[in-house]
Protein 1
Amino acid sequence: MYASEEEDRCIVMCRFAKSFSKDGTEVLTLKIEYPKVDFPDFRRAESIVNRCIRAQIDRFYHYASTVLYRQAVFAYQNQQADGAPFHPYDAVMKYEVTCAKNCFFSVYRDCYEFTGGAHGNTVRRSDTWNLATGKNVPLGCFFRPGANYRRTLLEEVLRQAKENMEKCPDLYFEDYQELIRRYFSLCHYYLTPDGPVIYYQLYEIAPYAAGFVTFSIPKDLLDCPPKCPG
């Protein structure tokens, strides 16, 4: 169980696992780890968050049990015909709670697939809610109306990346500045108690070994830091 700083709320981490077989052979394993929230002071938001997470899980399960399962069966049958060993496919969805403070709740979810090869692939997505309103919180909410916050954030990411490269020249790809601009997305962020964190997907600006590259945005860069009404 994840305990937030507020005593009146809790997040229980739930786990689900299932194995899919063909002709008695396991061809796909599915694992999901997700939060179930309990917000006594924000019942409407609690319902919205739990429904949203449930819908995301259902979509991932449907994809794994249909599309990915068919691919796994096809690969298994081909490798059986060739006399080659078959390694079961994997599908893993895991949520991480990054903020459960005041009236904000933020999570990211990593969806991993292994379909053979040296390693699998993971895609990250994230959501942030204002519990007082039950609405999603876009990055623009932390800036005054009309502000060119995309440019402000991009400049900060480029500044941090340059500093990181000076300390570790092989950290990112050689053309990292162009790649940072190309793949920058205002949707790719989550909230922490210290402020927003912007992330890049695997391979976008750095080698696979670097993992998900993140940039923490300082609160003093925000026109309207995260704040609850009242």
Protein 2
Amino acid sequence: MSAPPAPPPDRSAPPDRTDSAQTEPTRPLVRRARRARMWLEPGLGVKRWIFLFVVCTFVGAVAFLHFTWTGPLHPLATKWILWLNQFAEPGVFPLYAVGMVVMALALAGALYSITMISRAMLRGTGTAPETAVNVLYERKTLSRGMRVVTVGGGTGLSNLLTGLKTHSSNITAVVTVADDGGSSGRLREALDMVAPGDLTDCYAALSESPALARLLLHRFGRGEGLEGHTFGNLLLATLSEERGGLGTAMQDIHEILKVRGRVYPATTRPVTLVAELADGRTIRGESRFAEQIRPSRIERVRLEPENPSALTQVLEAVRDAEMIVLGPGSLFTSIIPALLIPDIARAVRESPAPVVYVASLMTEPGETDGLSLSDHVNAITRHLGRTPDWVLLSNSKIEPAVQRRYQQEGATVLTLDGAGRDLRGRVRFAPLIQAGTARHDPQKLAAALMQLWDGPPRRFSLPGQRD
């Protein structure tokens, strides 16, 4: 797979000293010309109104001329024309040229006044006039992007959303809400609500404002009752309490946060994640998995209470999706729990959209120890009832120092073993790793998914091969 396109050159960089004197005075004019040209880009819905304005102005001018020449203003119109005639010069500047100059000045004045009115209105709404065309162009372009539903939770999902929002605004994140530890667990127990932590991360990832994203993720380091909580978690808890539930508060949340896309909990009912192990034991509560699973392994996970309902908005998004992405994230605690909602699982099974599983880079200590990629896919198939159409796996090498750091915590690189040849035709390799980490690069991952959406790749890769 080809790497994502290089970023555009920094046009704000200073020009060479040799021509700086010539370039500097023209910069404002060049920037204005570029902005003016952008208003004429296809898809903005502006050119039709410019055309209508020109036509109406011409018709209005002709009608006004007819009115003044045939109506009670005829004497005044005659004096006006005679006054203009004094500026004419036969053979050099004829009468019709005088009229054209006056008409051009009048049109320029009208356009200037409309521009200033628009700028004043934009400033009143908090939008910088200089960036209005860029914002409009970006939103129009993103509104035509892929309709994608992402399923999961944790850092993996928020990373994915960070990359996807640069390609589309038609994003629906379906977030697992079974966490029972940390700030989420405390709020869940105190207010009988779903865990808000992963929802907060997704809202921050889709936020158009970096300042708002930082605010949502701010974690209080002191204060009785506040220490350990993030502002975003408290905001979601407040809206859930005020509106009588998180489900009814979702529209308010989206309007307040102005995110690029939609974020929904997999269910609005507080649920507990239960793991059934190979040795017959049962563990209740996600926060206990890592410590209590070993030396056994997970056979199946389920929710208590069973058969929680899903939001209507989630089911509609799945039905309308052009791609459904599972992960990246923890297999048994982030991805599969959302697929245990019967309505969501049924909608995904019946959807004509391709289902893409973004494989983790490392195993989860105590959760997926010793599992290969084919084991991951089999677990998804077993719980969902549908095998992913695509499996996206990174072929970038994790730096040895990073691997050693993870190995000290009990994590190893996820591999595609011999049994993985059963996945032939489904696996797609791409360089997805963020340099110096064992995490997916948001932009590389989004670019790989967009390539899958644009059309099936010409060939697939198996271990040992490279794109």
Protein 3
Amino acid sequence: MSSPHTTWRVLLGRWAEALRGCNVAEVHTADFLSRWLVISRACVVSMTASSALIGVLLAAEKAGVSGVSWLAAALCTAGLLAAHLSNNLLNDWTDTRRGVDTEDYPRAKYSTHPILGGLTTPRRLLAASLLLLGFAAATLAALILLRGWTVALFAAGGLGLSLTYTGLLKRYGLGELASLVAWGPLMIGGTAYACSGRLDPAFFAASLPYGLAVASVLVGKHIDKLEADRKAAVRSVPVLLGERRSRALNLGLFTAFYVLTAALAALRLTGPLVLLVLASLPRLVRVWKIYRQPRPAAPPKDWTVWPLWYVGWAMFLNRLAGLLLVAGLLGNVLLRSILALLR
């Protein structure tokens, strides 16, 4: 019999596997949390967490640690994570009903599909989505009480993009731009406003680098789904541009992330420690080589999201670059606080 310590170690390993690679072994017999981490595609919410933290830290950098509402910071982070998970579930529910998600569509291949794979029912999937959406709405109500109705404008923008993404934006080449707007100005700028009470143009300028980084992940995903999307009449940017040009586009987006981050520091819109993102350049070089080549005929060992390929590498870069950007902003906040104490 395994000890409780061993059992917890197995569970923690399985949860980490789901968050890291979007899948777990024997998912149908896995524990409840592991199954729902896979169902909700929790592996991609690190981008939302990064956007929320970037917004919080930008607010702290401008307003000072004492000028930030840390309750608002917690509410924003929790609400955004819940909204993202809800959106993932709602997209799967909608795409299944519309006939976009089928057994041979990439969504059902790179990870066990919630409905087609038998992990849950359409009714339960919709109920879980609405439950998470209700939680996000509750955090929004609390934020409105704290900061007023301006917060609701950011939320309304995000909700509008979410509700129109599957049926409209993704189908007409606007999904990638929508991701830039959502994870950039809306999430980062909105969080910074909620935490500080300031509508500072610097917040929105500083949101662009990471917004572009998130857009690159979506471009990578749509490159991987290009042929399937074309057959389903989904005119994503890669369908419109073709694979080679779309790979070149993503190389441009990767580069823009670093150039714009450096520009923010040079223009003193944020502190110099954001240049810590340059430590991810070796990973960029590795990803750059991948994007210069066609997709391999078969996945390498331990590749968990096949037939997806380019999105995996974009996410590989995004996670480190986002982490370093958050670390750099945190360093700016700490440096400002230390200098204030020394005055």
Protein 4
Amino acid sequence: MIIVKSPLRISFFGGSTDYESFYKKHGSFIIGTTIDKYIWLSARYRPKILPKEHFIGYSKAEVVSSINDIQNPLIRETLRHHGVRTPIDFTSLADVPSRTGLGGSSSFCVGMVHLMKKLDGKPVNKKDIAKTAIHIERNILKDSGGIQDQIWAAYGGLNTITIKKNGDFAVKALPVSEKFKRELEDSIVLIYTNDQRDQDAIARSHEKKDKKKILELAHRAYKAFLREDIEEIGSLMLEAWEEKRKISRIISTKKIDEMAEKVMGIGAYGVKLLGSGGCGFLMALFSPAGKKKIQKEFKEDILEFRFENRGTEVVYPVNSDV
């Protein structure tokens, strides 16, 4: 039995510039971090004495004789990609609901890739895991979306991601002080909108749109991070969110707009909706005093978290490599 956990992420700047239709022309620059909320996956090849079937457990349970009969496309195609023939037991758990804008589906895929490589005793590294997950989601499954989520889940950390026009990418730690990291972490509030929508339709709405302003704001925000100026980061985050809302009318909703307006009225430095849009978590930056007010107002819907910097990792057996 092998157990792998892969983190979820919050993206500060540059989201939607990681779509192939954009970065192939302009490149991409993204600032974000992973958090201590995870997708947990476990698997083993079945002992020979058990029935020669595959047990697949996620939000539902499947027992099938062939990998090709698995109904969940992501699980089916990842197992097929790794050439699984031996009967397997596979289960999954998540720390947050699905379709909440935290990159859960890509964390799931990254975790599966990592899990299968470890189960087969193959060497692994973070870049290979990310690239394989990107290939499965974007080329095999043909799901709409970018490539940042797979990179965040594989690498972990408070980083920048630079994507070249040829699709190659580089991950670098954001060069800020440990003191500022704690201040930034403490300033963030994640508020659940309690909505879920068709994320693939929303992701498709991002294709072939002009996002050069979003890319420009990401570069401006990087300088604000270097100055360790949370108020300026919040202001730029709000500007970037307003720019992203122009991509499609389904990026936001009346409910989300009203929540964002209320958050800003309480004193946030800035606010944005995480993910491709339409549902999930609002992220806002606050002063310590402002954070107390927002926690009182939205206490039932706030997700408590801390930053994490390890990325996908094996948690059982203990002391395993990456």
